[in-house]
What we know:
By secondary structure, this protein is mainly alpha-helical. It has 5 helices and 2 strands. Helix 1 crosses helix 5, helix 2 (about 60-80) packs across helix 4 and helix 3 crosses helix 4. The radius of gyration is 19 Å and the shape is elongated. The mean pLDDT is about 90.
Amino acid sequence: KTMIITPEEKEMTSYHEAGHTLLNLLLPKTDPFHKVTIIPRGRALGVSWSLPEKEKYSQTKSEMLSRINVCFGGLIAERLKFNDQTSGVSNDLVQATKIARGMVRRFGMSDLGPIDYNVSSEHPYLGRDIQNPKEFSESTAQRIDLEVEKIMNSSYEDGKKLIEDNIDKLELLAKTLLEKETL
């Protein structure tokens, strides 16, 4: 309640959140949009929410790719509108990377095939060495990194094209959000 943000920060936040919201609304495999606000919450200057209609126990590859796209929405909107970006994208990048890494390392959703490359996190006192044993080669680690990078770059470009094709909607959403603060 005591956080005071500048008009410039407020405008950047409105475009950032509008980017997330727009992609959430345009992509077919996302949870339904619920609410977006540019009223600061904790350390976040704004937040957008989408909520599932029912409890889900698994996700498809296309749903995960859509979630990565939505994560990039704020960054894409900032770059398109201001030719710059804020540090506010950090958590979005963490979330997108986590999803992409899971797709490659745990779920076999990449060109590496249906293999589990997730490093075991068993408790060291249960017979495991305290240092993680190497479960795959350095060459495989590089291939995993390349697959994650491929997913991330492709998702970013897909999201960018979608926002560019709907730039008028981004502008309307951001300006309305600046005026109303919560939608």
